[in-house]
Amino acid sequence: MKNDEIVGLLKGNFGEAFRGSEELSGDLTVKVDLDRLHEVLQFLRSHPSLEFDYLPFMTAIDYSVYPKPKTKEMETKLKEAKAKEEKIKENEEKLKEAKEEEAEKLKEEIARLKEEVVKAKEESEKLKKEAEREERKKRFDIVYQLRSTKHPYDIRVKAEVGEEDIVESATDIWNSAGCDECEIYDMFGIKFKNHPDLRRILMPEDWVGHPYRKDYPLKGRKEDDEYLDTHLPEGQLKRPEHTRMP
Amino acid sequence: MNSVEETRRVEINMGPQHPSTHGVGRFILTLNGEIIEDVKPVCGYLHRGLEKLAENMTYQQFMPIVDRLDYVASMNNDLAYCLAVEKLLGMEVPERAEYIRVIVAELGRIASHLIWLGTMALDIGALTPFFYTFRDRETIYDMFEEICGARLMYNYVRIGGVAKDITPKFMEMLKHFLDTFPRLMKETDGLLTKNRIWMRRTKDVGVISYDDAINWGLSGPSLRGSGVNWDLRKNRPYGIYPSLEFDVPYFPEGDVYARYLVRLEEINQSVRILRQCVEKIPAGEYMNPESPFVRPMKKPKEGIALKDFVLQIRGVKMPVGEIYFGAENPKGELGFYIVSDGAGKPYRMKIRTPSFVHVFALPKIVKGGLVADIVSVISSLDFVFGEVDR
């Protein structure tokens, strides 16, 4: 079974809940609706010709500062391409009337322009694709990387998750999802239901905030520093000034 | 009846300063007499937020930090990261560099397994193998020092190839190592494998079945110890591994002894791979000259200097998209999931580490066992806390 067939199978079974697929250097990514995410995962796990029985990892992505599509750039690139195409036509008309020496020059110029047009069109198409993809209403993406140990397939399943949404835990399908879900809850603040033991695992249990969110500062928050400065154990040095937020 | 049983239940704190947790691991054990009823792993003592740091660094800047993940197998970490970035770029690597990479990765695997063997024997109570394995590990570190100058954090494998060519002295050392090491390894093997005390401490201890091992996400030698014939070098081949001959050892018992045998056999297979590499290694480039991460050797002119400066600050622009690459490391599958928005820094990077998953599979393995066995189970899963907490 090839990647297209897996995509076709998902499309056939889930219809509107299937939101599209992508491929980059052999990695297949499919996007589905959050409402039917758990069903999709169960389907992928139990389908006899797929059997995605291994979950290497799951994670989340905060898309809140992802660069916006460059529609203006795309338009200007298209305009440039059009102008160059017109110039090519002009030059070709000139070519019919021109003498030998000029003709060679014009031919060279036409070849150069044609290359440029092709480049500009390619770039604008790339930008167009990005622009089409970028229509997201929710902040996070939740990502499941699945693998089959019996068949040679890998697939990545993604679903959009808002800050208020509660995701159904995948621990009933793969037990290894448990620790990753804890990490996502810890680092992004996405909640899971039916999880046996959802807790902060990397940060202290009373920590405020979710560090892997894009709005969390890299060098820590000022209020945390103030708290730590006043609650230091005896003999412990304060955090040096150059490592703090300016 | 219930109240009596509840009074018998005791909670014990193991770690974070416990010699056999291999770092700063902490486990809260619930005991009923000698039987373990529940284990709750607590981690985060070594948390450095590497994934957050990666978002604020260029791909090249993040290289040395990758060394700090599994700090006893830095070469393998470098290799996995470079392969992931190269997959995103779609870059090719010269053949000589591929061979050098395999050589250092397999040496790293042997070194990591030697540390595991020594410390596991030490945890269970055999002191002698520790000195034997650390003696052999020392020769490997001497070899790494010869090629890159560092003994622990190498930063040697680079995006597009390796940092330096290997020296003739290194090849001599490698050949000498391959001649002597298998004989020295037999000494350690002879001390443990058929040892009656060793077998009683490890056989039928910490059993995990075939299906459970897959479901709980075990990887690497721990997965193969449960009878799963799975090796990313064979099943999702990368580099030049398809052209090399080696076997994937796996044992169906799923206990500590099976995991021990798998790792011991893996050392032999690594030696086999190294022998082939020494024979086959071709001459040529050790770094892809077209790699955008290579800086020109000559002092650049003014206009180019500015360009070079911008390249260093903003990073090399990468294609838009997302990839995942997992490599077979000594501890298991180390994977990098990179989301790129086209800038010189990754938009998001998730590091999938084997140890993190293994720590949280531990409760499944030790539940119902004896307290004394938890130490040997922890050793057999072979986790490093630099990797767990990231």
Task: Describe this protein's structure.
The complex is a heterodimer of chains A (246) and B (390). Helix content of chain A is 42%, strand content 18%. Chain A has helices at 3-14, 37-46, 71-97, 100-133, 177-188, 222-230; strands at 18-24, 27-32, 54-62, 140-147, 154-161, 166-168, 191-193. In chain A, the strands form two sheets. In chain A, strands 1-2-5-4-3 form a five-stranded mixed sheet, covered by helices on one side. A two-stranded parallel sheet of chain A has the order 6-7. In chain A, a hairpin with a 6-residue loop joins strand 4 (140-147) and strand 5 (154-161). Chain B has one domain (50-389): Cytochrome-c3 Hydrogenase, chain B (Orthogonal Bundle). Chain B is built from 16 helices and eight strands. In chain B, a hairpin with a 2-residue loop joins strand 2 (26-32) and strand 3 (35-42). In chain B, helix 6 packs antiparallel against helix 7. The longest helix of chain B has 30 residues, at 95-124. In chain B, 47% of the residues are buried. The chains are: A alpha/beta (246), B mainly alpha (390). Chains A and B meet through strand 3 and helix 5 of A and helix 2, helix 9, strand 6, strand 7 and strand 8 of B.
Short description:
Chain A is of the alpha/beta class and 246 residues long. Chain A has helices at 3-14, 37-46, 71-97, 100-133, 177-188, 222-230; strands spanning 18-24, 27-32, 54-62, 140-147, 154-161, 166-168, 191-193.
Distance between the amino and carboxyl termini of chain B: 45 Å
Q: CATH topology of chain B, anyone?
A: Cytochrome-c3 Hydrogenase, chain B
Oligomer: heterodimer
Number of strands of chain A: 7
The strand count of chain B comes to 8
Biggest sheet strand order of chain B reads 1-2-3
Helix-strand string of chain B = HEEEHHHHHEEHHHHHHHEEEHHH
The name CATH uses for the topology of the largest domain in chain A is Beta Polymerase, domain 2
